[in-house]
Specification:
The complex is a heterodimer of chains A (325) and B (411). With 325 residues, chain A is mostly helical. Chain A is built from twelve helices and no strands. Chain A has helices at 3-12, 16-37, 47-57, 68-87, 103-123, 128-159, 164-173, 182-195, 207-210, 220-245, 258-285, 292-320. The longest helix of chain A has 32 residues, at 128-159. Chain B has 411 residues and is of the alpha+beta class. In chain B, the strands form three sheets. Chain B has a four-stranded antiparallel sheet with strand order 1-2-3-9, with helices on one face. Chain B has a three-stranded antiparallel sheet with strand order 6-7-8. In chain B, strands 4-5 form a two-stranded antiparallel sheet. In chain B, a hairpin with a 2-residue loop joins strand 4 and strand 5. Classes of the chains: A mainly alpha (325), B alpha+beta (411). The A-B interface holds A 37-40, 128-129, 131-132, 135-136, 199-200, 202-203, 206-209, 211-212, 285-294 and B 1, 5-8, 13-15, 26, 28-29, 116-127, 130, 190-193, 195-196, 347-352.
Chain lengths: 325, 411
């Protein structure tokens, strides 16, 4: 691969520019649907970009008692993590631009980075609300990461590979297998909600309790980056779910050869990702916020068990009818 | 985490719509101590009332609260009518009842929305506030105003209810009743709401009585108290209704009591319109602006069941056109002790909801500075304060000691 191609992948497609654009589009869909469900009008399509630019232009205050370096660098750290994760997900065609055996673990790791960025940024911002918020962020992290990993493990276990693109290709050719992964799909969606700190799992940044917790001291471009990180995390998380459980670019990808097939597949990925995002929006509009210990109970009492049951199901199917892959 | 963090809720905080301050000492997620400071927004309304005559005071006191404005003006005019010995005609009493119940509808719907928002259930908030618009439209149709209806005057009411208005209000109220029934069925069934509300901010019946809780807060703890039954005013003794009581004693109980009261208030509106007799709107012949001159010397305590509970107005007359003293005891003041008690040993996450659970009207309550702590005592109250002059001297001394107040003539 040439240097020019790599730069294109990193900065334009499927890297930063595409993902950020898609993140703004996703934020619009999320907000508009949320508004419609609540009987409101909702924002115009350009609103997410306008909000971002406005925040960029605002003063970015660093509190006196904050640890300046950590406070300032944390937002970039998280954003870099989720943008990198996108490179390992197949978006154009059925193969990611970078792929190697074990990249699924890397993606899961990179997706956890924003939570750590939030933790460090919040903890060192010297604000009691942020302090309580970061404690909750970390507590919640231990709650959802285990079921999330277990859920993402199920398709890897079925296909016998740790490479995201390979998992997709295997599952794409045997789409009848996907309904068997529905438990893992649901668990991963709920874990994603917790990862994104959205209702009902938004205790870490509960506005009415903690005045947005970790973010309380952030302003200006640092806040803009943190908010952008959330949006990027949303689309990357949705793309991961689409890749692992919804067959990514299939079946449209197989309809034509060459560029046309890839383009059709790309459309399929976008549509599926938006459907996942809309599902997440519907969930957050019909429930109330759980307390942190209730969130924890939901994950350890139900979702870990469900994810393990899913792994057992995959193994049982392989033992009884033979592994199709 | 073993060390304690002090989390300041307020005076400026997204959960509070008005200024109050809770210093919560938290250990991890648990609140181990709570201190409450009120009265950031003292407006001197009681003093201002002494500078105006009785008629002007109606409009001043109506502005104590934006939500229960009719409660304050009703409590005041009922007291003044008692002092002056004026009999209010039946039709006026029914119109007052109608406005009072419409006000209860919109107040409870507003609370339902705020409660939903506090627990992160924003959809409930937007739904409740949309339905509240129907009530506000009805009030506007009847009185011309959405908030301060200015319907009361000494001896009666200022606006009549026409047949078309009655029809429109009946229609709106029926719709609101339908929505209230929907919330009554759905809200307690929603699992996340139940998880957040059940067992939160517990208040036993004995504690509710001991701490003199009023209104829905007391009724949710099984105390059947309601001024509309105990000391009927307006047309309540001629209407058919029961006191809504729930013995859960927690936040879920407070939600359910208010939802049931929504349905009941809608029924009372319908009853008031359907049973409304024909007749005069005012019980006196004299022009309104001369009425202030006919108030005899005396004093009166006037009680009213506001949406948040028992509201008390004390009025003392020295025979002049201006009242010698007006004292307002807003229902929220009676409910604060239960909040401070409920906060202790609860989760930090529940703090905003425990506060919101009594539907606090913070600025309306701001009469004097009150500080409470979780032990239940009033802290900072100095020794040897016996009367108003002592308190006034103490205040001067206190400000002098603080030393950051501009001296008179500094400007």
């Amino acid at each position: 691969m040439s240097v020019a191609a790599n730069v294109f992948y990193l900065l334009i497609f499927p890297g930063a520019l595409f993902i950020v654009t898609f993140a703004f589009a996703a934020q619009y869909v999320d907000r508009k649907l949320y508004a419609k469900l609540q009987n409101r009008v909702g924002p115009p399509p350009i609103q997410p970009v306008a909000d971002f630019l406005k925040l960029l232009s605002k003063q970015s205050v660093v509190p006196d008692n904050a640890r300046r370096e950590i406070f300032a660098w944390a937002p970039l750290f998280g954003l870099a993590g989720v943008l990198t994760a996108a490179l390992y997900l197949p978006i154009w065609g059925d193969e990611a631009v970078f792929a190697f055996q074990g990249d699924l673990v890397v993606v899961l790791f990179l997706l956890a980075l924003p939570s750590f960025a939030l933790f460090f940024g919040g903890w060192y911002s010297g604000n009691p609300f942020s302090r309580v918020g970061t404690l909750r962020t970390l507590t919640q992290l231990f709650g959802y990461e285990v079921p999330f990993f277990l859920a993402c493990l199920a398709p890897a276990l079925a296909t016998g590979t740790w490479e995201t693109s390979a998992i997709l290709q295997e599952l794409g050719t045997e789409p009848w297998y996907l309904p068997l992964l529905v438990i893992a799909f649901v668990v991963s969606l709920l874990s994603l909600l917790a990862k994104l700190e959205r209702v009902p799992f938004d205790a870490p940044e509960a506005e009415t309790e903690l005045a947005s917790g970790t973010l309380a001291e952030y302003s200006g471009r640092k806040l803009a980056l943190l908010k952008l990180t959330k949006d990027v995390e949303l689309v990357v998380g949705a793309l991961l779910v689409v890749t692992l459980f919804l067959g990514g670019p299939y079946p449209l990808h197989g309809l034509a050869d060459g560029i046309a097939g890839d383009a059709l597949g790309f459309v399929a990925v976008l549509i599926k990702a938006l459907v996942v995002i809309m599902l997440l929006t519907v969930v957050r509009s019909v429930v109330a916020r759980l307390r942190i210990e209730q969130t924890f109970a939901v994950f350890y009492r139900w979702l870990v068990g469900a994810a393990i049951a899913q792994a057992a199901l995959v193994l049982a199917v392989a033992a009884v009818v033979g592994n199709p892959f | 985490m073993t060390d304690e963090t002090i989390v300041p809720i307020g005076p400026q905080h997204p959960a509070l719509k008005e200024p109050a301050n809770f210093m919560l000492t938290v250990k991890g997620e648990e609140i181990v101590d709570a201190d409450l400071t009120l009265s950031y927004n003292h407006r001197g309304i009681e003093r201002a009332a002494e500078d105006r005559d009785y008629l002007q005071d109606i409009y001043l006191l109506e502005r104590v609260c934006g939500i229960c404005s009719h409660s304050h003006s009703s409590a005041f005019v009922q007291g003044v009518e008692e002092l002056a010995g004026i009999e209010v005609p039946a039709r006026a009493r029914y119109i007052r009842t109608l406005v009072g119940e419409l006000e209860r509808l919109h107040s409870h719907l507003l609370w339902l929305g705020v409660g939903g928002h506090e627990m992160g259930f924003d959809t409930l908030w937007h739904y409740a506030w949309r339905d509240r618009e129907l009530v506000l439209d009805s009030l506007e149709e009847l009185s011309g105003n959405r908030v301060n209806y200015a319907i009361n005057t000494i001896g009666g009411v200022r606006e009549d209810l026409s047949d078309e208005q009655a029809e429109l209000i009946l229609e709106n109220v029926a719709q609101v009743r339908e929505r209230a029934e929907y919330y009554r069925d759905v809200v307690p069934e929603e699992e996340t709401v139940r998880l957040r509300a059940e067992g939160v901010g517990p208040l036993s019946k004995a504690d509710a009585e001991k701490q003199c809780a009023v209104g829905p807060t007391a009724r949710a703890s099984g105390v059947a108290t309601d001024v509309r039954k105990e000391d009927p005013y307006a047309a309540y003794d001629e209407l058919d209704f029961e006191i809504v009581v729930d013995d859960r004693g927690d936040l879920l109980g407070r939600i359910l009591v208010r939802l049931d009261e929504l349905i009941q208030a809608a029924d009372l509106c319908t009853q008031a319109i359907e049973n409304m007799p024909e007749g005069d709107l005012r019980g006196v012949e004299r022009p309104s602006h001369t009425l202030s001159n006919m108030i005899e010397e005396g004093e009166v305590v006037s009680r009213y069941e506001a949406p948040r509970g028992e509201l008390i107005h004390y009025i003392r007359s020295d025979g002049s056109p201006n009242p010698a003293r007006v004292k307002v005891r807003a229902p929220t003041l009676a409910n604060w002790p239960s909040v401070v008690q409920g906060l202790k040993n609860s989760y930090l996450a529940d703090a905003p909801m425990i506060v919101a659970g009594i539907d606090p009207c913070i600025s309306c309550t701001a009469r004097i500075g009150v500080e409470m702590n979780a032990v239940g005592g009033v802290s900072g109250a100095p020794e040897g304060i016996e009367n108003l002059d002592d308190l006034s001297d103490y205040a001067k001394e206190w400000y002098a000691r603080r030393g950051d107040q501009p001296k008179r003539g500094d400007a």
